[in-house]
Amino acid sequence: MSQSAIEVRDLVKHYQILERDAGLKGAIKALFSRKYRTKEAVKGIDLSIAPGERVGYIGFNGAGKSTTIKMLAGVLRPDAGSVRIFGIDPHEDRIQNARQIGAVFGQRTQLFWDIPVRESFDLLREIYEVPRAEFAETVAWFIARLQLEPLLDVPVRQLSLGQKMRCELAAAFLHRPRVVYLDEPTIGLDIDIKETIRAFIREISDAWGTTVILTTHDMQDIEEVCDRVIVLDEGRIIYDDRIETLKQTFNNERTLEITLDEGTSFTVPPSVTGLVTELTSDQETDTIQLAFNHHEISSGQLIREIVNCNQVKDLSVVVPKMETLIRNLYQPEVSA
Amino acid sequence: MRLKKYVALASSQIKVDMAYTAWYWASMFSVTMRLFILYFFWQAVYENKTDVSGISLSMMLTYAVLATMLDQFRGGAGRELAHLIKHGGVAVELLRPYHLLDKLLAQDIGTKTSTFFRSTLPLLVIAMLFIGVDPPTSLESAFAFSISVVLAILLATLIDLLVGVLSFYTVNVWGLSVLQEAVITIMSGAIIPLTLFPDWFQTISLYLPFASLVYVPVAIYTGDIQASGIWPSILIQLAWVGAFFLFVRLLFAYAVRKVTVFGG
Q1: Domain A6-248 and domain A252-319 have a common topology
Q2: SS (H, E, C) A50-61
Q3: Residue B92's closest chain A neighbor by CA?
């Protein structure tokens, strides 16, 4: 059996949070007696990720995504459980592990604030001890793919968000790491740069077999980059499967939006009772939303039945987006 | 080639420091002012005297100038570390294949090298021309002085780093670093030679590391520490450097085990 890139067993992390009463009185009280509350950020996670896999790691704010990523990267020490990145314990052998990983941590820059991008890259070459020829080849490729040419002589602190993120991404991949953690790499970026970044991640990962762990709130990122989705909620994994499986599970869900002629009311045709669920109905604008399963009744037949007994002005069929699919995971009773 | 990356970090830091010219001129100005204040102060003190506790005016001015110069080399790395911890940048640093303390030390050496050439040397020329600095008392003391200075600067950086590492525990080390600043300024002899303090104070400072920071190297230069005392003093400096080096490493290794990264 081939070695997995990331192997996680029973991973647990708690934080000690200082409890303090509000106001000056609370602040003074906290000087003498400190009460700590334990927050369990990650409550027992198991993961096995193969080399070259691209995994979307998603969940609401505070679900424990960043905490997990930091443990995988070796920055945080797990309270229990084990992590192995290609067989290396990332916290105990942090420096050894650092050579095989790369990362983009949201807003936090890993470039060198005061020096131009080109020199930042050169410094990273020294730090990661990358051979000159290999490095030159990599940089040339990245410059072309991420359109970095005009940015190379600009000090990092003068770059715009989109420019900086492209450079960050290049920096994370420069030493050809085996595993890359991307914590919200597209946050706050415009659609063009998002596209560039997604294409870049795909291309590099395909070329080098880089394992990618991506956290994001943008489902488009997941759809275009990842081949597997892991959903985290309150420190536990609630979903872990191929992205196609996720799509297929909810593939038959459709929503029909109907706008009626003014003053008419909506009647559910008797032939479709039990096959549709009325989601919303707005008397003011005369619009109704119906949820139905494409598998049980085809869109065409449903529309025909509805048009037959209602004064329909307009209608459209909505295929659910990734976002809806994910939301359904949190509230399984709604999607049933 | 382990060392190479640290050399690269140091030389990159030199380039960064070169870029901040306004800051450079401001600090040149303030140190020049400080030198002249010292000059007029000691002129006034010596107005009707030829010596203070056996120290002549020119010896005192030499001491004051060198102590002021050496004082410029205090700290830096620890503040950087505290900043990294407080603002969460330490997370990125821990992802890199280097020891963070070594990286900070390398950058510190870079900064201090550029300070030496850009600021200390020109200021020394100004001081020699306008204030008067005695030459070292002997060839041996000049040689011992240069070794002692390097050890003093290294020790200052390590003490600073120690305070920086403590911010893993207290988050805000501002109070601590103000305290450190005050204690070092007085107990290192950066303002006046330790020999002018009462005996009990001198005895205490013998057992503390602070005298090694300024007083020891400068006193070696001025001949205040005589031939037989030179090498034992340097040995004590070396011992402090070794002790602080190990202590900072241990504390850092322990702190990293329980690191909490702020801001998610």
Answers
A1: no
A2: CCCCEEEEECCC
A3: A110
Distance from CA of B118 to the nearest CA of A (A): 19
Average pLDDT over residues B51-73: 88
Across the interface, whether the CB atoms of B95 and A99 are under 8 A apart is answered no
Q: Distance between CA atoms of A195 and A169, rounded to whole angstroms? A: 13
CATH class of the structural domain A6-248: alpha beta
- Domain spans in chain A, listed from the N-terminal domain onward: 6-248, 252-319
Q: Give the max Cα distance, chain B.
A: 65
| pLDDT for the residue numbered A56 | 93
Q: What angle do CA B217, B223, B227 make, to 5 degrees?
A: 90
Q: How do the domains of chain B map onto residue ranges?
A: 2-262
B16 contact residues in A (CB cutoff 8 A): 112, 114-115
Q: What is the mean pLDDT of chain B?
A: 87
Count the alpha carbons within 13 Å of A98 in the hemisphere toward its beta carbon.
20
Query: What integer pLDDT is reported at residue A331 of this predicted model?
Result: 62
CATH for A252-319, among 3.40.50.300, 3.30.70.920, 2.40.40.20, 3.40.630.30?
A: 3.30.70.920
| Residue A277 backbone class (left: φ over 0; alpha: ψ -120 to 50; beta: rest) | beta
Closest to A85 in 3D by CA, of A319, B2, A94: A94
pLDDT at A1: 47
Please check whether residue B211 is in contact with residue B236, taking contact to mean a CB–CB distance below 8 angstroms: no
Amino acid A250: pLDDT: 66
Q: What is the mean pLDDT of residues B130-155?
A: 90
Amino acid at A43: K
Q: Which residues contact A7 (CB under 8 A, 6 or more apart)?
A: A47, A48, A49, A82, A83, A84
Residue B55: pLDDT over 50: yes
The pLDDT score that the predictor gives to residue A30 is 67
The pLDDT, as a whole number, for residue A132 is 94
Find residue A179's DSSP bridge partners.
A101, A211
3-class secondary structure, A22: coil
Q: CA A177, CA B93: separation in Å to the nearest integer?
A: 16
Is any Cβ of chain A less than 8 angstroms from the Cβ of B12? yes
The letter for the amino acid at A204 is I
pLDDT at B188: 87
The strand pair at A80-85 and A101-105 is best described as unpaired
Q: What is the mean pLDDT of residues B69-86?
A: 86
- Please give the pLDDT value at position A322: 67
Residues of A in contact with B253 (CB under 8 A): none
Residue A212 CB neighbour total at 10 angstroms: 24
The amino acid present at A202, given as its one-letter code, is: R
State which residues of chain A have pLDDT below 70: 1-2, 18, 20, 30-31, 249-251, 322, 325, 330-336
